[in-house]
Design a protein that fits this description.
CATH architecture of the largest domain: Alpha-Beta Barrel
Strand content: 15-25%
Largest sheet: 8 strands, mixed
Number of strands: 16
CATH class of the largest domain: Alpha Beta
Shape: globular
Number of helices: 16
CATH topology of the largest domain: TIM Barrel
CATH superfamily of the largest domain: Metal-dependent hydrolases
Length: about 425
């Protein structure tokens, strides 16, 4: 006898399952649907928090048991896909840097802004001064915005505390809000974000603090899954990044790396050597770096919004990465200094126009490959039996509109862990 479905979404015009069996990594050229697992006139059955079945609606009755206790949602012919995953954000912070944006547009350099006490140091000061309750309230509101745009999982880094109490405070806020908000949060420790002002002339002392105090405390309290480093001129060099990431590995934290953003450092090779789940930014990537990534399981994460917001012209070589067979994700890099936007669908459009991705590659980059970037491929990023029931139903019958129609919300309905958690005003269930 077939299993009973608790929830069925029917009348789906186009369903993207992102089934790995449908391809999608470097072997499909310009095929517009490779890797998407496209099903026409589809339905999805859910049991508890997990996908029970996906397929053509005409096959639903033979595949699962549906009765008067089954909740039925009519998608009205709209497209549906896995909930979006934002795999690189800095969503916990206090303060505004709108004044800094205006100064930069007027011609001030970032170095000038830093020398005036603004830049990242202003965010660190404001975040240190904010209470856990205030940070949690701000994060809750930001996650509401993410959810309204179809995002169901968000990775969040610390790194605006830069002392032990403040870094722990940020990670505790992520943990607390994760329990209360429907969006799932993935915590990353980024104590090696930049040197705090008070350690400017004591670089070794700060590294010792990160490696010997912060990482052990974060690990002992179970507050992070990943350890990240900003490997960049003016932040942390290659040997320092290795030291931090190896300390993280020793304490059970999976490595990630901010890599090759402003200058070329050789950090991709380090990340792959250490088994990093992802390398992020990549604007200064070399052809050799691309070969190294293609032969690895490390995901290349593109952050086109940051390149755009900083007024740079050199976007990461997304087309080369995809053609080489790399796993390529797309994220917002949401933060107050270099990308003040939670709009992940907008980044899909940028990734196509500026990084050279095909639309289906961009969609894979916010689902299947984004899940890989947070080491969650077995449960997130695709709609396959046994995987988490995180589903975005668009307000359009054509999934391509999520990439094409940019800058606007296109969410009709969001299901998270088998429950409806967002419904656009006026969409109505049929």
């Amino acid at each position: 006898m077939s299993e009973h479905a608790d929830l069925v979404i029917r009348n789906i015009g186009q369903l993207l399952t992102m089934d790995p069996a449908s391809g999608g990594r470097g072997d499909a050229g310009a095929d517009p649907v490779a890797g998407l697992g496209l099903v026409i006139n589809a339905a999805v059955a859910i049991k508890g928090e997990l996908i029970l079945w996906t397929g053509r609606e005409r096959e639903l009755a033979a595949a699962v048991s549906v009765d008067e206790e089954t909740e039925i949602i009519d998608a009205g012919g709209s497209a549906a896909m896995p909930g979006l995953i934002d795999c690189h954000t800095h969503s916990v912070f206090a303060g505004s840097r709108a004044h800094e944006f205006a100064r930069r547009i007027s011609g001030a350099s970032y170095e000038e802004i830093l020398s005036e006490g603004f830049g990242i140091h202003a965010t660190v000061k404001a975040t240190r001064e904010a209470s856990e309750e205030a940070l949690a309230s701000m994060l809750f509101g930001r996650l509401d915005t993410f959810l309204s745009l179809g995002v169901t999982t968000v990775e969040i880094k610390s790194g605006y505390g830069l002392d032990l109490p403040s870094e722990l405070k940020m990670l505790k806020v992520i943990s607390e809000v994760d329990r209360r908000h429907p969006v799932d949060l993935v915590p990353t420790f980024l104590g090696a974000h930049t040197l705090p002002v008070e350690f400017r002339s004591r670089r070794r002392k700060y590294l010792d603090l990160v490696v010997s105090k912060m990482i052990p405390a974060v690990s002992e309290q179970g507050l992070a899954r990943f350890c990240d480093v900003f490997c960049e001129q003016g932040a942390f060099d290659l040997s320092e990044s290795r030291e931090v990431l190896e300390a993280g590995i020793a304490h059970g934290l999976i490595p990630k790396l901010h890599a090759e953003q402003l200058t070329h450092s050789g950090s991709v090779e380090l990340a792959v050597e250490l088994g990093a789940s992802s390398v992020d930014h990549l604007e200064q990537l070399s052809d050799q770096d691309i070969k190294i990534l293609a032969a690895s399981n490390t995901v290349a994460v593109l952050l086109p919004g940051a390149t755009y917001f900083l007024g740079k012209k050199s976007f990461a070589p997304g087309r080369k990465l995809c053609d080489a067979g790399c796993s390529v994700a797309v994220s917002t890099d949401f933060n107050p200094g270099s990308c003040m936007s939670e709009n992940l669908p907008l980044m899909l459009n940028m990734a196509c126009l500026e990084n050279g991705l095909y639309p289906r590659e961009a969609l894979l980059g916010t689902t299947r490959w984004a899940a890989a970037a947070i080491a969650s491929s077995d449960e997130l990023g695709a709609l396959m039996p046994g995987m988490q029931a995180d589903i975005l139903v668009l307000d359009s019958p054509d999934y391509r509109n999520l990439v094409y129609h940019f800058g606007v919300g296109q969410t009709q309905l969001v299901v998270k862990r088998g429950k409806t958690v967002y419904q656009a005003v006026g969409s109505g269930r049929r």
